Amino acid sequence: MQFMLLFSRQGKLRLQKWYVAHPDKLKKKITRELITTILARKPKMCSFLEWRDLKIVYKRYASLYFCCAIEQEDNELLTLEVIHRYVELLDKYFGSVCELDIIFNFEKAYFILDELLLGGEIQETSKKNVLKAIAAQDLLQEVSHGNIEI
Amino acid sequence: MPAVRGDGMRGLAVFISDIRNCKSKEAEIKRINKELANIRSKFKGDKTLDGYQKKKYVCKLLFIFLLGHDIDFGHMEAVNLLSSNKYSEKQIGYLFISVLVNTNSELIKLIIQSIKNDLVSRNSIHVNLALQCIANIGSREMAEAFGNDIPKLLVSGDTMDVVKQSAALCLLRLFRTSQEIIPGGEWTSRIIHLLNDQHMGVVTAATSLIDALVKKNPEEYKGCVSLAVSRLSRIVTASYTDLQDYTYYFVPAPWLSVKLLRLLQNYTPPAEDPGVRGRLNECLETILNKAQEPPKSKKVQHSNAKNAVLFEAISLIIHNDSEANLLVRACNQLGQFLSNRETNLRYLALESMCHLATSEFSHEAVKKHQEVVILSMKMEKDVSVRQQAVDLLYAMCDKSNAEEIVQEMLNYLETADYSIREEMVLKVAILAEKYATDYTWYVDVILNLIRIAGDYVSEEVWYRVIQIVINRDEVQGYAAKTVFEALQAPACHENMVKVGGYILGEFGNLIAGDQRSSPGVQFQLLHSKYHLCSPMTRALLLSTYIKFINLFPEIRTQVQEVFKQHSNLRSADVELQQRASEYLQLSIIASSDVLATVLEEMPAFPERESSILAVLKKKKPGRVPENDIKENKSPTPVTNHNNDVNNTSAGSADLLGLSTPPTSQPNSSNTGVLLDVLGDIYNKPTNNLSNTSSNNTWFVDPKKFVCKNNGVLFENDLIQIGVKSEFRQNLGRLGLFYGNKTSAPLQNFVPTLMWSDEQASKLSIQMKPVEPVLEAGAQIQQMINAECIDDYTDAPSIVINFVCNNIPQKITIKLPLTINKFFEPTEMNGESFFARWKNLGNTNQQRSQKIFKASTPMDLQVARTKIMGFGMQLLDGIDPNPDNFVCAGIIHMRTQQVGCLLRLEPNKNAQMYRLTVRSSKETVSIEICDLLAEQF
User: Fold this and answer.
1) For residue B654, what is the DSSP state?
2) Does residue A40 sit at the B interface (CB-CB below 8 Å)?
3) Would you say the ipTM is above 0.90?
4) Whole-prediction pTM value?
5) Sequence-separated (6 or more) residues with CB below 8 Å from residue B446
6) Ramachandran region, residue B934 (left: φ > 0; alpha: ψ -120 to 50; beta: rest)
7) pLDDT exceeds 50 at position B637
């Protein structure tokens, strides 16, 4: 996978994760282009599209679009399920996740994603194991901070 | 404000709320600037800032960056956080760095030590944080700093599974930047054996790594095949409860299954071990069987995961292309998907079937689904699905169904989306030509194309119909009649006028017997369109008119009146003005014999095997110039009569002023469209003289002939040496033309070949002898035949010795017989190009790359012409950067064929080029790279 973007129905970018090095300018251009393209598509359309030499796989969950750019030989259907697994993880962690959770806890969204994917490849497919890893991180935080909850 | 999880930062949450409450973009920017100023002053002034505050501010900066603003400070504070002993601070530091730091940043040096410390931490969470950071940045520096530690981490028995997983993928990322990072030897087997690991997560991660390693060195990692098959076999026969949390919606380990199936696509089917092969086929059959079972869940996740594995298995079946039974079963399965209610499945099924259509085992099976595919093309709501259907129809077309498929595509074209019309037009044109048994059908199809989608009919398409009509007597009368009828439509497309004008100019006489299409009627009909046409079309029509004067002397005055019109004779368009005045003069001065000779019917275009592919060439700007010599004309204009050459004296061939379409070039590996042959003949080829040691000994290495086949190789006061060459497959034919420019004979005239026996075993050369005397003012021709047997470097030279006025002369010329001449251009789409590109890039042996400064100012148009002349197919629209050139071609040799891909990336700012060549043979890659690099 080359990158993953999360954006809202209004076209606001909520999360971006790049697995290839691009200059910021290019990243912005790609992001703008894809957001426009995908928002223009109708609900019943196919979740895949050819874009430059990549394949785009996207899916909408409530008000958020999840969009991945994968390479030609990558598996589209399974990429949809990578997205789904990520949504499940967010859901489990935040307890029925909504867009606001991701806005206010964007760093958590990143940490969870980093446990699921590394360098653009799936690292751990087991939901239990990912959640375990995140829980261990949270525990470490609480230990070092004497459990500050606000 | 929603609850903030874990270790919350109240200030951050307040700031995010503020931003969200901003009513306008301006207000948002104002709030952000205020915050940036605040953070900057804190970072600058407040020395007592504690870790928590630093973390909070770094997090705010991160948030501001994610909103799309540039962040130019805070990096040092983030670096400081890395060495914090509080995990939450460390984690935010790492996050900031992986999101904001580019691979080439100076900062990387500063963080390496912190990462090193975390990498040896006893806490696996810290180790993973470090690994994630390395993988996120993935730069060369990272590879150098950690290239030793990470492989050890991966295979060590002490490493925890979660760390192994991260280490495998981290290593993969570094391997992509620096291929040398993976140690060979005993490591190979240890890495391969990760496929047997107990922990499914480790196997999943390791399989990705192994896949990349295999691509680079398939031979060394061959052992992975049997392990992968065993692992796959265990998964597909497992019940979904066996694998616990690695079962996804009742599908056992879909990610690992897909990766293993992917890995196996790097190899040909395991032939030497029938046991492994049998087991693999069993796995594939099981997967196909499972597809027929009722679903275990109604959830789309279940069907997606299950079908993801199925599609990957089908990819492997297609890749192996050896088991007819499996191929046909795969085809039937995909056939079922064609009418599935999931758009995604229909899309993928069409795509996958395209590949099946190219296998001899399953081509027939694919054809059974023709009707459904035609329906998909017409009825699908999503244009990307319709596009897939068009592609599949194109792929499944053969002699038996061509008429029907072409007709359906034509029907659909009337309502097709604009975005796919041009490509459809090309596809229809290609199919019609490829499978035409009756050329009247072909003519009808192309004229229909122009009628239905005239705007999308590119020049190549209408050039091609003209070539075919000219080359085939049996269809000429029909074509004339048909275009005449088509032109009678009240609104007809300009492309129709062009084709009509050209064809009537050549063959109007074949229908002139009929009163309804008498000469006068034909002329009036064409001329009624004249004023609506562009200058280029008008120019063509003027040529048609002069041809009419020859065909139909009875309308001569009528035609002359048109030439005389002010709008033509004094046209602001110089081309029209010139044609009108010259044609007028020609019609007045020339006798009917001369007219008949000058305006003779076009000679047949040389047939060219791969013409069909050349048609696919995208439109090329800058093609038109009038001074292109056509084939059949040797470069005779040796000396001094260059100034009076114009369109008419160039002979009948160029009379209609059609630029030569790529398809009409005489040889398949040719210089492409517009060779500026005349231009070169008339310009003194001074730049050819690379080294002149004295005034009667010359060494010439005309480098520009790497990219062209015809022109003047050498010229001085005594002699002009021209060349004309053609190549087909692995054979080449050169005509050398020696012109004596003096008023004395050249004596003892002997050209000798310089090409060792050893070299000749790779490129064999036969040279016909020539007369030893070249008379004053005369020109002689010497034929040279070449056959490419094996790949070679350099090119043969000839030494020409002669005596002129008692002074011995010696000229050494390198012949334009470099290996690129044996290219056959290969058309391919982006997908297959990049697939091959990746495949060929696996080993250094296949690649050659040069980065070099432009020797002349960069001009992409010039570069384009050169590349097209180089002999490969220039593939437009494939590279995401429109300035880059990518090409594909096959070099034909007697012993083998070598596929070759090329990418040239100009960097205008730096005035540098990067040229990469990939082929299945190292020596070829290097030579092609060297040859082309010298051209820029």
Assistant:
1) G
2) no
3) yes
4) 0.68
5) B429, B432, B461, B462, B464, B465, B499
6) alpha
7) no
